[in-house]
Every structure is written in structure tokens, then in C-alpha cells.
């Protein structure tokens, strides 16, 4: 009991009051205005499909991997996209090791809804052999430091990682066209994913006073806020997902106003992400190194063979 | 909406509906409200907002479903179905949940467990003195987990916990009977909550928290009590230890005759019938129902059947209509 | 922890040391006594550092390692900022960023008796003095100075509290006054309470000045005196 | 696929702005402090509320307010394909969280410090709009338990198929892959507390769809209010004086 008291982070009543009262005069404790984002920096790892996003003090890593698997029975011609989140106790003492907590699940679901349900990634182009073999794309999001507003940071990390991910090219051969050849990176240039649009998450925080709304809340503001709304939009002005999971009620007009602001911010973010990805691609082009290895041909006849194939596929990608 | 959970045949259904409709016609145009309903008030006289109300945009709004009550300037909403809301001096029946240092924690259908301090109850030897460490060690001899006891609400401590007291012979452990729970709004606060029903040889305690005790009559001035009081503490501990191997004499002392047992069950079932029908539970009404079942020569178990329920509803409708006519 | 040693100070004084560095070799020292402070320990004939930081020496014979850290190791007579966590019958439980919750006896107030125990809700910010800090025991706090007077201790109302490092707190408390506070003090009027546990509380007339002071202090941790001046000037200009 | 016929009728014969039949019953679980069954067409959920009661895990006790917990489960037999569902999958964890936060926003938790309120909702039949039905059932159950609330919360969903905004989607319409907007409102204050949406929709269209869902919420609020009013009247008249 006492140990628990000693180890939890807590806020003084002074801070709560101060944050709320200064918001009434449009002031935030870190000197931002209500609709300013914190400083965003996007970095990439040496490997394709990894990103590191820093939004103020929040730090998130994204990692994309692909694997050849049999498709879902109800969607034989589509690949799949799955989002996994990892809240490490390193990032915040309130995160517990082990099973993902409620917040980790909610974060994953918000990003999942934004990316998958709006069909941002073309899953049909991930199909290799109808009903037998498709690419399954897995996005892992690791929270390294929680400085507030994990959703936006994690969403940007996911987008940046997906934009730089490249999967090995596959071709069909053999008499019946059932043989799959996975080409190594040396032989054929790996293919990027087809991304239709970039759904960018923008988070708003609401406070006990009706008229106070801020964007991109910090850790301290999150401790004081009474409700949160995350709107995921793309540059075409489409709403891709919204999540306001309870909390204080807000007027409908406020929601719509938030969406308009979010659409401006989303355009902002999109250009930042695109710039970062472009500079990464230039660097990558310079870095190209030739390697030698022979293509692997596996014939796909039955389910056993498919499994084997999928393992091979996974190994290839990890190379 | 909320029907009594009974399986009725067609005629019974019609009879019950008729009886309930009749009851509804008697009720004064009750000022019932639901959550977030605005309560009309006269602001000129000044308003005191009581339980179950809050203010939204300058008007008084209900926060629970219930009946609006006004006392002078005070406006409050009397919630019907809800957990027990203690008031100082209420007589309650509770069950011991936990024996903690110097206190017992009791389940009393409140939002927290109630606390009965060792110091706020009379010791079995009846002597007024400071509680010693030995008393503390022997707490389980007085009440242990699962015991049903009767006590009085003493008040709220500054830390928000509810404290009870049992400083009288009439409070304490209840034995040789049964406890049943009913919604607390069916039990009204009255002068008398302890009832000794001589004709049946039973005790009835209507706890304000909706816990009802029906048990064999215990005479508080019973010679055995005095005998017990004279016993030294050590002896008591010994009795406790030997309880499983109780002597024949002891068995005889705690023996409840069959007739009393039947009366206990009849009374308990009467309370259950009233609870399923949602009628307020008073001692007069309970006696009336017990007499009705005896006069009908119905079995005790038949009392919970649909036929008896419908009958009770009809009788009650008659009774209330007669009462209104008298006025 | 007294040891015979020479009066000659170690060559590491005012230098950065890391855990494991041999700071002093006792065999080379003649008869003399030295006193060891935090972050140093004796291993046979040597004194080694066990914390990263700057080795400090005070005449005649005191050595200690000064470092900046986020957590706080309680030390008697330190003035700290604590947050009330819970109220018990005899003590308030106060979080002072230490390894264990600190106890503030309910009577440790000026003129405190059983009858006038103050009521603190959870989360109340207090300026307190550490009275006892022994290992294996919860530290004990007091809201009185050694003479039993309140002298500024007690509840801090309103304002804004932020957490930094113990090093920053020491810088703010050093004399002569550090440049940040000096310049800010000339331009703005505000109240400040610095706890040695790395907590700083600021209050001022308007929220904007409080935010400015807080951010200026937080930015100044890694800056030199001249840099601090420039940073504060810039901030002040931006606001005006 | 055609979800709205040229005559303006949906697959189940409803008009685009028409809600399914709703039915509510209070007091479905006798052991619980409050309970309710809520039906929207073929969707049927049951909710039970226990509390405010002693906190089970002392370390979770809050000294200034009540602890609210919520558990959402879907019965194995609630959908067409009867499969064993693992407990605590990501979807139900999220829905539990959302229902809890939504109900927490209207319960006056500061009136019941150091206690715990448990809300259990179970889907008995799933035919689209389970989230909304669960929230409506939970509201009724909380009101039945006599727990003070600042306002009722009601919820309804709306979608957009064949360029038509549709109120209260059923399973077939929901799985068509079009946008699905679930709204939860506080009817008295006219504020939005819950808002969830997926798939793609231009802002202007979204505004219309949200408006439609809000209208649905208000209709449900009126019905729930009637049910509660009737229930209170009956309880009072039976109790007698």
C-alpha cells in the first residue's frame, strides 16, 4: 500500500488549478497557444520500415514487417494489416508489464480504425496467389517515453514506417503458375506499399470549462483534462475515424469546429511526414549496396507447403 | 415495465392487473420525476436543494428517479429503488464481513461496509470498563464472520466511514431465525422496529436497511442471560471451544419447537410476498397476511405461489380503498 | 567515517568522477583525518566514487560527490517541497520524491495541538523541512524551524509547481543569486520556493509571468551564466 | 449492392431515417441493484448494475469519488456463427473502456466516495448497433439502481450507404463496409459525450450523418424517460403510504 503511494506519479492541486485557470486566458504551461503542436521530429532507422517519432517529450518507435501467410477465408484476394502496440513500463510508471492494458488496446484500435477501415493501404496488391498466399503486414508501435498525446505520435510513427517499408517482389512461375519466387533485394528492387492516402490523427483535449479546447495535450494536461477527441483525417478533407470515448460532453458545434481545425493540422502533418520520407529515400538511394544471393523457388501445392513458404518469406524479410 | 416475477395464468394475470390498477388509482398524484427532469420551484421564496437534486443553467434538476418532496424551502427527491441511505438512530440488521483490529465490518446494503467498534458495544459481561487487549483477542467470541447482528447507526466519522453502536441488551447477535433482504424503500422509519409477536412466539426486526430478521423470541431478561452474564470470560471462551460438542442440555436450551419454526417461515414468506409485490412492509400488514394464510389453511410453501400473491394484492387493494372511504 | 590521511587534497577535486574512480589512495597519505560525504566509499586503502558527478572538497577535510539527479535522497535539515498523499491519524503521508514516503506528524506545526490539526486534501503542496532521515525508516518532516516557528513553512497556495533535478535546485539556491533569477527578478515580480528535492514552485500576479518564469528556469539547467542571460532576455522580449 | 431501393426502402423495409423498434424493460435481474434489458430490432442486450458497494480491491479505492468498472461481453450465441469467444479480446476491452468512460461522465461519482459501482453488459443477440444498445441499457440500469446522475446518456448509430444517410444500421448494413457513426449524447445538456466513427466520409456529409444519429439519440431518450417515469409511478403507487 505504502509502496504504491511512493511509486505513483501524482500532481499537486496547485498545478491542476493553475493549468485550468491559465487555459481560460488561452495560456498553456509550456508556452504554446491552444492550437499549436509541440516540436515534431521524424527519424528513420537503417532498415526499411522503421521510424522513430518524437513529439515534444513523447517518443514512439514504429516498425513494419511483412510475412507471407494464407489469407482469411472471407477475403481470399486481400492481404492484411495488423497494428500491435507495446506500452513498456519504461515509458511511464503507470504502464504495467505484461498484457496490454485498456489504454494500449484503445490506442491500437484508434490507429487501426484510421488506417485499415479507411483503406489507406491497398491490401489487394498484397495478394500473391489468390486464396493461398498473401502478404500480412504487421505494424509494431513501441512507446518509449510518455509525454502525453501518444495517439498522434504513434499514428505518425505508423505512417512513416509504412511509407518507408518495402517488401520483396514476388513472381509466379511454373507450369500452372502456382510457383512463387521471392526475389531478394539484390536481384530486384523491393516494392513499397501502395498507400492511397495518409490518415493523420489529431487529438483535442477538453476541460471542465466548456469553451476550453487544446490540441496535442501534454502529460500534465492529460491528467487534468475531462475528455478527449481524436479525429483522423486526410488531406482530401475526408474524416477517416473519430474517437471520443466518453468523458465530458461537448456541443456538436464544438465537434465540427474541431474537425475543421484538425483538417488544417492534418495537412500540416502530412507535408512534414512526406518531407521526412523523401529525404530518407534520397539517403537510401545513395546507400544502395550490391549483395549476391540466389532466388528461392517454392512450389505451392498444399497447406503444408504454404506454411513452409510463409516461414521462408519471413526469413527473407528479416535478412 | 417491472412486473413481479411470477408465472401467472390468464385469470390470475387479469385479477392482478385489476388489483394493481386499483392501487394506482388511489395513489395521490405523486410528483414522480426521472433523471434530468426539471423540478418546478418558486424561486421567490428561496430554494434549498436537497438530496437527489442539482442545478443546471439555473433550474433545479433531479439526479435520481423518485418522488419530489417539499418541506418549506427544501426540495428533494426521494429515491425509490436505491441502496440504503443511513440516518443517525436507524435500527439496522447486518452481517459481519470481517473482524478487523478493534472493530467489525458489517455488510448493511450501504455503499461501504459499516464499522462497529469494540468500544461502542456492551461487553457480554455487561460491565462498563476500558477494553483490554484480551477483549480484542476474544472479539471472535462475540461476533465472527457471517454472524447476523442488530445495531443502531451512530453516525459518520470524519473520514467518511459509517459507525454503528450496540449499547443495549436489545442489540447484538441474532440467532435461531432467518434473515431476508427486501428493497430498503419498503421499510419505513417508525418508532418501533423491534416487534415481539407473542401469539407466534417470534421476534421480528424490520431493519431500516432492508434486512429483516425473523427469529424465535428471546427474552432479554432471560435467566440464561443472567447466568451468562455471571460467567467469567474464560468460561465463555471454553464454551466457545466446546460448541461443537454441545451437551444435551445445551441442545435442549437452543431447541426451537416445530410450531415456532413454522411461524418463523410463515412470517418470512409474508415479507417475501410483500417484497415481490412491492408493497410497503409493516408489522400490521405482515400479521394480516400471516393470519390470511392461516385462515386459508394454506401450506407455508404455497404462500410464495402466484395464487396467494394475487390474493394478497386483492386484499391490499380492498384494504386501502376501505381506508380511503373512511376518510 | 573518519580516516587518517594527508592534508593534501585529491587531484580529482572539482573534476568529473564516475563510479569506480579511485579518488584517494590512503596509503600515500600521512596521518590526517578526512570526512566522506555522499557518493564516496572506502574500499580497503582507497576511497572510490560510487556516483557520477563532480568531486568537491571543503576545508579542512571534507569530500563529497556533487551530482544532479531526478530522485532525491533525504537528508536532515534540507528544505523540500512535498505533496500530501494521504492522511492518517498521527501523520500526513507526504511524497518528497525520495525512496520512501515521508511522515509529517500532524502536530509538527507552529502551535500545533490535537485540537487544531490542519486539514489537507490529497495533492496539497507543502514547503517542509526534513527532520530525520535515517536509512530503513521513513523520513520525518516538520513545518517548523528549529525554534518551533512557522517561518515560511507550510502550505503553498495557488501558483505552479514543476519538477526538475536536484542540481538545478542547488543552482537556484546558490549565492550569489544565479543569473536567471537575477534578471527575472529585475523585470518581473514573483514568488518562488525551491526545494532541494528538485521541485520548484512559482507564483506571480498573472499566469503568463508564472509560465515565463517556470520555462526560463527549466531551460536554464544546462546553460552557462551568459547563455542564461541571453535566453531570459529573448523570452522577455517575445512576451513584450 | 443496393442498400436503398429506388423507392427509398432499406433491406428490412425501413425508410432511411427510420429507427428499428425499440423496447426496454427495467428490473430484469433480481439480484442486481439495478438492471435492464434493451432491444433495438433484433439486437438485445442485458445490463446489471451492482453498487455503490464496498471496494473489492482496497488498493483501487478512491478517496474522493466512486470507482466505476464496466465489463462488456458478447454471448457465444449472439451472432450467426456460434463460436467460442476468448474473454478480453481487443474489441471488448475497448468497448468496456468506452462504456465505462461514457457512464462515468454522467454519474455523480463524487457523491459516493470510497465505493465501487460495477456495470455488466452482455449482448444476447447481435444485429448491429450493439455498442449503442449497451449504453442505453446501462443508463436504464443505473437509473434503476438509484445512482445519482447529472443526465441520462443515450446512444444511437447512423451510417452512409448508396449516398444516403441511414439511421440505426443493422448487421447487414453495418458489414457493408460503409462509414458507421456511433453517437452518445446527454439529452438535457444537448452535448456529445461519445463519438466513434470509422471508414471515410467528407466533413460535410459527416455533419449530416452525425446530426441524424443525434436525432436518433433524442428519440431514444424520450422513450427511456417514459419507461423510467412509468416505472417510478408504479413503484410508488404499489408501495402505498
Automatic annotation (TrEMBL), chain A:
Family listed: Belongs to the RNase PH family.
PANTHER family attached to this UniProt entry: EXOSOME COMPLEX COMPONENT RRP45 (PTHR11097:SF14), EXOSOME COMPLEX EXONUCLEASE RIBOSOMAL RNA PROCESSING PROTEIN (PTHR11097)
Primary location recorded for the protein, binned into one broad class: cytoplasm
Matching CDD domains: RNase_PH_RRP45 (cd11368)
Domain of life: Eukaryota
Record protein name field: Protein ECERIFERUM 7
GO cellular component: cytoplasmic exosome (RNase complex); nuclear exosome (RNase complex)
Alphabetized InterPro entries for the sequence: ExoRNase_PH_dom1, ExoRNase_PH_dom2, ExoRNase_PH_dom2_sf, Exosome_comp_Rrp42_subfam, PNPase/RNase_PH_dom_sf, Ribosomal_Su5_D2-typ_SF, Rrp45
Alphabetized UniProt keyword annotations: Cytoplasm, Nucleus, RNA-binding
Record localization: Cytoplasm; Nucleus
GO terms, biological process: exonucleolytic trimming to generate mature 3'-end of 5.8S rRNA from tricistronic rRNA transcript (SSU-rRNA, 5.8S rRNA, LSU-rRNA); nuclear mRNA surveillance; nuclear polyadenylation-dependent rRNA catabolic process; rRNA catabolic process; TRAMP-dependent tRNA surveillance pathway; U1 snRNA 3'-end processing; U4 snRNA 3'-end processing; U5 snRNA 3'-end processing
Keyword ATP-binding assigned: no
Database matches in SUPFAM superfamilies: Ribonuclease PH domain 2-like, Ribosomal protein S5 domain 2-like
Organism: Kalanchoe fedtschenkoi (Lavender scallops)
GO MF annotation list: mRNA 3'-UTR AU-rich region binding
Residue ranges of domain Exoribonuclease phosphorolytic in the record: 37-168, 197-263
TrEMBL record, chain B:
Gene Ontology biological process terms, A to Z: CUT catabolic process; exonucleolytic trimming to generate mature 3'-end of 5.8S rRNA from tricistronic rRNA transcript (SSU-rRNA, 5.8S rRNA, LSU-rRNA); negative regulation of post-transcriptional gene silencing; nuclear polyadenylation-dependent rRNA catabolic process; poly(A)-dependent snoRNA 3'-end processing; TRAMP-dependent tRNA surveillance pathway; U4 snRNA 3'-end processing
A GO term for molecular function: RNA binding
Pfam families, per the entry: KH_6, S1_RRP4
Organism: Kalanchoe fedtschenkoi (Lavender scallops)
GO cellular component: cytoplasmic exosome (RNase complex); nuclear exosome (RNase complex); nucleolus; nucleoplasm
Protein name, UniProt field: S1 motif domain-containing protein
Keywords of this entry: Exosome, Nucleus, RNA-binding, rRNA processing
Family (UniProt): Belongs to the RRP4 family.
Cell compartments where the protein resides: Nucleus
Top-level taxon in the UniProt lineage: Eukaryota
Keyword RNA-binding: yes
Entry keyword annotation includes Ribonucleoprotein: no
Domain (S1 motif): residue spans on this chain: 87-167
Record InterPro entries: Exosome_RNA_bind1/RRP40/RRP4 (IPR026699), KH_dom_type_1 (IPR004088), KH_dom_type_1_sf (IPR036612), NA-bd_OB-fold (IPR012340), S1_domain (IPR003029), S1_RRP4 (IPR048565)
UniProtKB/TrEMBL annotation, chain C:
SUPFAM superfamilies on file: Eukaryotic type KH-domain (KH-domain type I), Nucleic acid-binding proteins, Ribosomal L27 protein-like
GO annotation (BP), single: exonucleolytic trimming to generate mature 3'-end of 5.8S rRNA from tricistronic rRNA transcript (SSU-rRNA, 5.8S rRNA, LSU-rRNA)
Coiled-coil region: none
Any one GO MF annotation of this record: RNA binding
Superkingdom per UniProt: Eukaryota
Sorted UniProt keywords: Cytoplasm, Exosome, Nucleus, RNA-binding, rRNA processing
Domain Exosome complex exonuclease Rrp40 N-terminal span(s) in chain numbering: 34-71
Family assignment from sequence similarity: Belongs to the RRP40 family.
Record protein name field: Ribosomal RNA-processing protein 40
Organism the protein comes from: Kalanchoe fedtschenkoi
Classification of source organism: Eukaryota, Viridiplantae, Streptophyta, Embryophyta, Tracheophyta
UniProtKB/TrEMBL annotation, chain D:
GO biological process, one term: rRNA catabolic process
Gene Ontology annotations for the cellular component aspect, listed alphabetically: cytoplasmic exosome (RNase complex); nuclear exosome (RNase complex); nucleolus
InterPro entries recorded: ExoRNase_PH_dom1, ExoRNase_PH_dom2, ExoRNase_PH_dom2_sf, PNPase/RNase_PH_dom_sf, Ribosomal_Su5_D2-typ_SF, RNase_PH
Keyword tags: Cytoplasm, Exosome
Keyword Cytoplasm tagged: yes
SUPFAM superfamilies: Ribonuclease PH domain 2-like, Ribosomal protein S5 domain 2-like
One family name in Pfam for this protein: RNase_PH
Exoribonuclease phosphorolytic domain sequence ranges: 18-148, 151-216
Cell compartment(s), UniProt: Cytoplasm; Nucleus, Nucleolus
MF terms (GO), sorted A to Z: RNA binding
Gene3D superfamilies according to UniProt: GHMP Kinase, N-terminal domain
Family named by the database record: Belongs to the RNase PH family.
The name this protein goes by in its record: Exosome complex component RRP41 homolog
UniProt source species: Kalanchoe fedtschenkoi (Lavender scallops)
